[in-house]
Design a protein that fits this description.
6 copies of one chain form a homohexamer.
Chain A: E1 14-28, E2 38-46, E3 49-55, E4 70-79, E5 83-92, H1 111-125, H2 129-139, H3 142-150, H4 164-182, H5 189-198, H6 203-206, H7 218-222, H8 224-238, H9 245-257, H10 273-296
Parallel strand pairs in A: 3-5
Antiparallel strand pairs in A: 1-2, 1-4, 2-3, 4-5
Helix pairs in contact in A: 1-4, 1-5, 4-5, 4-10, 5-9, 5-10, 8-9, 9-10
Chain lengths: 324, 324, 324, 324, 324, 324
């Protein structure tokens, strides 16, 4: 059966489709004759969008649904402060058996190809043996590698899809290389590439890996990917007694300072050229991706100006192809 | 011999005193007949102030002086862009044999008394056994305790003296307690006091312990006391396998967020009531100490207004005693 | 009859309850056959929440309802941009005869108990006779005392309930005391406590005392509680010719500067240690109360994270009791 | 004898002139043979500038000099961190007998003429009888009028001279009138002009009237001219029982809000059109005066660009006359 | 037929009126039986307000409607997230034949009268011959004059109506004159008035002249009225070879800097007194107009406080006439 | 004769060298016996630094010296608020005959080589014929090319040397290319490279080309390089009637918006992907150059931390080579 996409549901439609539960709240009826009873308010979603839903006689016990479940729903779209699915039937599905591509956006680039590209950087481009060993220790760990390859680079704004972290990392590598080409005497390329590869590994623990909607972990919200990442590197380094202490200091500094400014969440500002270059490579990748994402959502038929984007605080002018 | 204090040297004075070398630079002569020779430009200091100095024929080799040395100097005060000591004789002293009180300001409170007060808090007031154990592990370590008892709480602005960290920590404890008295149901006092005691331990590694002028370590400048402190706690906790994971998460969050705002260097903002209370207790101690320090430097004879303080961006009105 | 609470009304419910009129607008019909007629759009509220309402044939003349009236309403809940009561019957009630506790949130602490606690501070803790006299003059005035005991400390954000000003004042007193314990030589406790007690008295005139919804007075919006409070103090002091002029200056300065920063509405920044301490005590009470209010609205069943709070700009992590 | 102007003293000059003492500090000698003795460090000034001075054997007792004294000095200009007068002789002068024009800059406009212009506004242009009475009560008070006519409008930045307040007030009146011409239906001209005339009267008490260097009073620093001015108006209004309460509210609001933004020191932002217009008239007068003052200090011979002005954060382009 | 105004349409009304299409989107049906079909979502407006509309069987081909069309619509007002017209019939009208006054707000002042007033300024008040010639060249061009006389001064906030640019320009002229009266020696009145007249001419090209809803042109969004205006002046000046180069420089600077601050869009800050005065005159006109517009929308019956204005970030106090 | 470098002059040195006059002021003597006479205060400089100078009997008439003259000076270094040359002899030199390399820092890269590299980009990499023609028109103009090749990219902060504009432009090209490699479908490489090449051409007119100290032109200060550059492009485009209007719009937008943010001087923010990429390439080149310049001034012997840089607001950690 072809999946109905949430984003194209309209008032009056009959619904029979799969969805991920983005929010779920049991609410008591206020009407006296239903005293003690509860109904279920939901937000359902998939890659195409999100919609409110309500179920008046929800399943209980083991069959009750909660946030992040993947479900099959049947019902019809009514109106209550906007479109709302009145659900007649809901069933939990085994998340391992559904097509995650319906629920999670995935990188446009092939994940295996990107993995290979990253491994090649580690093998071919990092000459310094301690850094090479550190990276090998990380990326030869299959659990780590799987997490790294699937994680998004952010929940909103940029590279917010499966494989996004990997895709973002490769971009950051490219922008680091470009800076090293211009300032080869000042930049330590081996160190800069290592920083680029490891700068966001804390993201793997910042988002729940089993979460279809990239939920934050408690640790993600209380510690944050910057300090988690530094900790992950520190733990690996504790097992490499020969690693030069100053190199460690510089590498840890790069992870801590890669957001560049205190008000952007960096506990320290970049104080080495490599940390400074990493910050700018990260910024460039995030910003360009954010800008092109707004362009990507624009349909050519609706003129040359995209809708207002509240993050970029502007509309973007996208000249038609002919002109280009 | 009574020590001449640097702060009271005036042009025309003869100098025979001890000082700490705050800055030291060898400079080449530009005059042709001295080509190849160097002279030494210094900044000398003690608790009372700092002064420029110059020596035309400085000692070389093992006897050469460098930053943070304690020295005996003989010379006279001339004028070169302000008062400057022309040094005729300089000798390094054994830093262990000088009276450090001449070079480092020391807390007005007795360090042993403060140590006892802190230990009492740990023993009497912390009931939760995991937290008590963690604190005991830290403070029963004599090296740690010695470092903790001597470190300043900052290099400028507040509690910038030997014992300052300890003094500041006791104030933070008091302000935490005061908040817990008002909000006893919301605040977890055991956890809050533990956070108060540990919040600034990273300072011990942020400043060079052997430095008479509280120099930053490279690690202090590149990682910062917030992340160093969290790391110190993490290492101790790794050795306490029974420590409840959520308690660890909350405690680490408190250390990371105690500066309160990203622009003040907190990688995360406080997201628990205990972290929020700790931030405010720290703020209160730092700000009051800074304010009273400006009052302390004011001499009653010069009217009721202190000099302009560039950190507080104001003069302070200090009414005369009679009035009070 | 048990009162139906506004916050639990749901679409389809029949309504027979009391409410306060938060907004009331007469609107002309646009349909030609009702030309010249008006209907009434309302917002009704009580301590539990607020709801829209409409009445097609509203009472006129003396029986017409306006903002801040307490009314009995009968009707049913329909839907128009969300739930809306269609009112069939509405009658004004004598505000003195209704149970105000249904319409105004009240402090969790007993008001008489708090009043006694405050009076004890004035009698026992303030030694300086001029300050004691000033306070006595204020608090022995029954009208003043009644206003003080009932006023909220703010309309939103913190202590926004009957008795809130008194409750907040006692917290500020506690935080002032705590600072004086740490800095006993610098702080003038008598003066600081006097400032704490009087700092927000302008609130009594900033909100309409007879308003069930704590409406601002025109004076409150055009002059503000800071300048009103200073004026109230000035008027009392004009009747105390012996009051030392410098003490008066310091006290007036404390009232004017207690918001701490110009951008927070302080016409002057604190320039005495007592004004500085008062500012921080006020800040601490307001912030902690705001933080715990968000915690208080969180239902333990819905996980460990509260909803996003737009004033604090964060969700709060509230660990479950077991853990604590 | 023609007065030597401070601003044109150069190293090597002999000095015999009058000056006002801007700062005065007695300092102990550090050299042992002068133990117990003191010398006097001074800053001397007049309308043309300021210079450092030192006196090794200063007069004591009744003849000792302090800040704000007008003195006769004899000495010569040496060098010590820039030019410094070594004073051989110093004598206090009767401030009433010196030519204040040497020490205080004075408005370029005639003070009597400006006073007449202001009085004409009150008599001719204010029709509303309560406002007219209020103004008459103020300006018929000779002490008030004398203070008003002599006070500066600020200590730095704009109209910082004797008569500056009066000159600034007339400009604000003109800019208020100009706004009322454009928005005659919205603006209440009588009220706006009254606000313009009274908006800065707090300045009279913000600066010491007997101070040659426009020293702040304690009250000026702790209460500020905005709240002082409102208080002065309130006291006069208390004596006018017929004054309409709402008019009083609006007028007091205008005084409190005339700085326009909280961060510029306004306890309330302007919430009436008249308060809004007053704020802009005040802004315009202050800014234009500040801009033209920088132009006025520019000597035509040194090109078309003034020196950098740190308040305006720019150099100003002043095209030569011919061009204009 | 009397036009039904959009702003007074209420749910249940029958609609037969003219409107301008503010937004128009063709949307595919999601219901299977309408696959391939589209419906039309609209926003319709006139001077009185705006309303959503939907048409299930919209006209196609030449008769299809798009943004900025003026149309006749027939239908009825239903409810879908607020009032929405369900359109049964829609027809495009010839924009030249409708009464534009229904769709575009127009200045309260007569446009011819304002044009005459402006021309008089050019003829009588500008003495410098090069400036007079430049202005004459602009305003003798009928196409330019027509555009200038019809353009608004802004799309929102202030003078946002037909003739608004002209009305705003006359106000700016008045505020410039007022400044020149106070600072006659510093200000070059001829130049200042010329700058006032030309400062916003870029607006003519910033908004589409044929657009009933003052749509931005692409050029308006990508270049902006400041640089467009400077370019328009530069083109005219290229044809006046005798124009003094320095005068040109000053005039171009005035246009570029009239927004005053970089963050307000000025590529350069004002560096001449005339540019500085122009900036303030523009600011005053824009701000007062914005403030009085909020007052104008306030109905006297609903009390003395206007609704909250999100641009001014305040409610305005409008005392009732009697009081005034 | 080997040139004495200004930066190594010390008090007591005899001076016989060439210098550029950075500032020159004639000042009247205040001492009575020199009434009517003037002396000359100077600031002299070369690539190594700057020093104050004074000449008591300066040459007059044709031989008088002014800002930007290159001179031969003879004298000796005394002390007056720091080192100051007392000049006994001064003579103007023909600026064409001196070795400019003594007075102006020059790019470390060969200018001819950079010119060739730029020309190759224009010839090989720009395919779009209108853009290629536009660039050819600019760079085939020898006067333009000479100006472009010699201009600095800024007066301070980054690439502030002869050839700096060219060097900076090549870096910007490289960073543009790097972005286009990552986002090839979104970015129009021909347009982006054209923008990169032309983005700073306004600098040629912003600094006086004949000025040894890169003085600003009046036009540079009043119009700024952004608007000058746009104007230069517009003039060339007016001669290319076939140039597609939309391409022109996009190109002009890129020039206007390349500073990225209004507060950084951009009259418009980047609204196309190419403008956005150009902004980031420019930012990257400027920031890295600024960072490495601080590193370049650091002498390896003085430890691993550079001096505090007030623009970057930090010291930089430069690990010693061995470590790297």
């Amino acid at each position: 059966m072809k999946k109905q996409m949430i984003g194209s549901l309209r008032i009056g439609d009959e619904v029979e489709t799969q969805a991920v539960v983005l929010e779920a709240n049991m609410t008591a009826f206020s009407a006296p004759h239903r005293a003690g009873d509860h109904f279920l308010r939901l937000v359902l979603g998939d890659v195409s969008g999100r919609i409110k839903a309500v179920m008046w006689d929800p399943p209980a016990g083991d069959e009750s649904v909660k946030q992040d479940d993947v479900v099959f729903v049947r019902g019809s779209v009514g109106e209550y402060h906007g479109p709302q699915v009145v659900v007649s039937d809901i069933r939990k599905l085994d998340p391992e058996k559904v097509n995650r591509a319906f629920f999670q956006p995935v990188s446009a680039r092939d994940i295996n190809e990107m993995t290979a590209e990253l491994n090649k950087v580690i093998e071919k481009d990092i000459g310094e043996r301690h850094l090479k060993k550190l990276l090998a220790d990380f990326f030869s760990d299959e659990t780590f590698m799987r997490g790294f390859a699937r994680a998004p680079a952010a929940r909103t704004v940029h590279h917010n899809w499966v494989g996004g972290l990997l895709e973002h990392t490769l971009e950051v590598i490219a922008f680091c290389r470009s800076q090293a080409e211009q300032y080869p005497h000042e930049i330590n390329l081996d160190l800069l590439l290592t920083g680029a590869i490891l700068h966001d590994i804390g993201k793997i623990e910042e988002y729940r890996q089993d979460s279809i909607s990239f939920e934050f972990t408690d640790r993600g919200k209380l510690i944050g990917h910057i300090c988690i990442g530094k900790e992950m590197v520190a733990q690996k380094l504790d097992q490499l007694p020969d690693f030069p202490p100053n190199l460690r200091l510089e590498l840890e500094h790069m992870l801590l300072s890669h957001h560049g400014l205190r008000e952007w969440g960096a506990p320290e500002v970049p104080k080495t050229i490599d940390a400074f270059a990493l910050f700018h490579a990260d910024l460039l990748s995030a910003r360009l991706n954010q800008f092109t994402a707004v362009m990507g959502k624009h349909s050519p038929g609706s003129g040359e100006w995209t809708e207002w984007d509240r993050f970029l605080e502007r509309s973007i002018y996208v000249p038609s192809e002919g002109e280009k």
